[in-house]
Amino acid sequence: MADQYVLKLYITGKTPRTETAVTTLRKICEEELQNQYQLVVIDILEHPQLAEDEKILATPTLIKVLPQPLRRIIGDLSNREKVLLGLDLRPTPAEGK
């Protein structure tokens, strides 16, 4: 089950920015990962201790827990290529051989 992605998305309340992040991420996950992912959306207004434990300084913040290595993506996730790169779903451009 090495292909299983575990993702945590930290948001602050229900705002247009957080709704965009959640919608965009769900769409990317469905298209790219099919059923190979677990997504947990955490509202730091409801669970401030979880945000403190993960040292979340800005929201939305996406943390890719598995597969390793751990990655963080900060922002509304509207840049699809940046999200795919952060999830290691695309090769890094201009990375030498």
Compile the SSE list and pairings.
Blueprint: E1 5-11, H1 16-33, E2 37-43, H2 48-53, E3 61-66, E4 71-74, H3 80-86
Quickly give the CATH architecture of the domain at 5-69: 3-Layer(aba) Sandwich
Mean pLDDT: 88
Report strand order across the widest sheet: 2-1-3-4
Question: In what range is the share of β-strand residues?
Answer: 15-25%
Taking Cα atoms only, what radius of gyration do you get, to the nearest Å?
Answer: 13 Å
CATH class of the domain at 5-69, anyone? Alpha Beta
CATH topology of the domain at 5-69: Glutaredoxin
* Count of β-strands: 4
Protein model, in words:
The protein is built from 3 helices and 4 strands; from the N terminus they run βαβαββα. With 97 residues, it is α+β, with helices and mostly antiparallel strands.
Features:
32% helix, Glutaredoxin, alpha+beta
Offer a concise description of the structure:
The chain has 3 helices and 4 strands, in the order E-H-E-H-E-E-H. With 97 residues, the protein is an alpha+beta fold. A 4-stranded mixed sheet has the order 2-1-3-4.
